[in-house]
Amino acid sequence: MPQHYFLTIDAGTGSGRAVIFDTHGKQVSIGQQEWTHLSEEGVANSMGFDYTKNWKILQECIKTAIFKAGIKASAIKAVTATSMREGIVLYDKEGNELFGVANVDARADQQVSELKRLYPQSEAEFYKESGQTYALGALPRLLWLKENRPHLYEKTAAMNMISDWALTKLSGVIASEPSNAGTSGIFSLEKRQWLPEMAKKVGLKDDIFPPVYESGTIIGEVTQKAADETGLAKGTPVVMGGGDVQLGSAGLGVVEAGEVAILGGTFWQQLVNMPTAKTDPNMDIRVNPHVIPGISQAEGITFFSGLVMRWFRDALCQSEVAEAMRRGIDPYTYLEQLASKVPVGANGILPIFSDAMHYGKWYHAAPSFLNLSLDPLISSKGAMFRSLEENAAIVSMLNLESIFTFTGVQSNSITFAGGASKGALWSQILADVTGKEVRIPSVNEATSLGGAFACGVATGEYSSIAEVAKSLVKWDKHYIPESANYVKYQEVSEKWKEAYAAQLRLVDEGITTSMWQAPGL
Fold first, then answer.
1. In angstroms, how far is CA 478 from the centroid of its own chain?
2. How do strand 413-417 and strand 437-441 relate by DSSP bridges?
3. What pLDDT, on a 0 to 100 scale, did the predictor assign at position 175?
4. Interhelix angle 424-434/483-508, nearest 10 degrees
5. In this predicted model, what pLDDT tens digit does every residue of 236-251 receive, in sequence order?
6. Distant-in-sequence, close-in-space partners of 231: CB < 8 Å, separation ≥ 6
7. pLDDT (tens digit per residue) in 311-352
8. Residues 233, 354: Cα–Cα separation, whole Å
9. Any idea what DSSP says for residue 275?
10. 423 bridge partner residues
11. Domains of the chain in sequence order
């Protein structure tokens, strides 16, 4: 029988990708291009999604992946998509895009404040149903559009998420699915369906929400226009995908209640699967639908961990980057080599970037390093780099502790994936900070692999996403915590919490500027 393949489009925060897998879950090829989300002139804290430019980028990614795979497009048995969550795209009645925003677009500051003033109990009520606050939700953004771009709002006939948008471009079908639509905040955790009455309650259209299909459902096929644009074969089945974190969890085999994962990318997500749709009375923890029916995910988020590392590399480490290139190794590998010579605690350096997650009142201190020494041997770049790795692990530990308390789940192991998991030192630090075994999967593109699982279910190759995840996911490395380091990191964590609280007070007093804050605070 001829070999066939599955293709996943991944519209991420920092890049677009197209990844091809064979039916055994082996990655065959990838096409990737970086992209940016630009602020709109005169719109504070905006982060627009350029669907015109980004679709052209994805077209090239798909063509590149097919070319690198050395296969005919007809050998691709199905295509799906995943993306950053929270981002939305709006359409007119002809199915043309009108408006789009990326994940942490925070333009709707005034609208959140107004919602809280006019409907004081609404955020808590909506959170109980959806697991989401207004922080990254679609309702305030739709209100912003109604008030600031009324001509676009009046034309709006449909809305879906960015992963859904990629499938709309392929098939012409406007639809959505629970794992990403759930992050809109207009969605029922329990029923896994839109809650249009939420929109109606705050004076918005309630007829713009498309049909909902579970991940792994065929919703259409590649049109002739999309085939001409991408190089895919006309008629290729288009399969419902999902949000990057939830499909990534599937690609890691994190598909059963009680399993724990940390995804280390631009943001870090700490995830615990639970068999119910319950929410946190304090609204401190986000809860999302998994791509696995019957499973919800309690989630903590660390802001910009990967982005901070890229900033540190590009702004401060030009000579280290040059040395890494001379040695023929990745700059992060070289920086880890320097950091590995620094003792636990990074010589007392305390990085102030992302706070632990407080979903009901979500903001961060001004970015900074505290407790630097003028001795260059103590506050070296290696020490600063190690402090950043330790800090991401500490915030992850704090988020997981909150989630464990909320869910009642306890686990002795954590699945760790994403770009950060490639760092051997970072992985060991995570084990030492949490006191838990850290498992690294073999696959690099876990989110896209989850998409391949969805394609395989849709085409009859696999029986379910959960079953194929358990059978195909393989492990590359295991890191065991060192008890002495665990004790030291508990002390570092306590110091960091006190230091961070002091830095937040400077933001509260208007002395420093928050790295990011949710609209309406």
1. 24
2. parallel
3. 98
4. 90
5. 999 999 999 999 999 9
6. 62, 63, 66, 73
7. 999 999 999 999 999 999 999 999 999 999 999 999 999 999
8. 44
9. S
10. none
11. 5-240 (3.30.420.40), 253-444+477-513 (3.30.420.40)
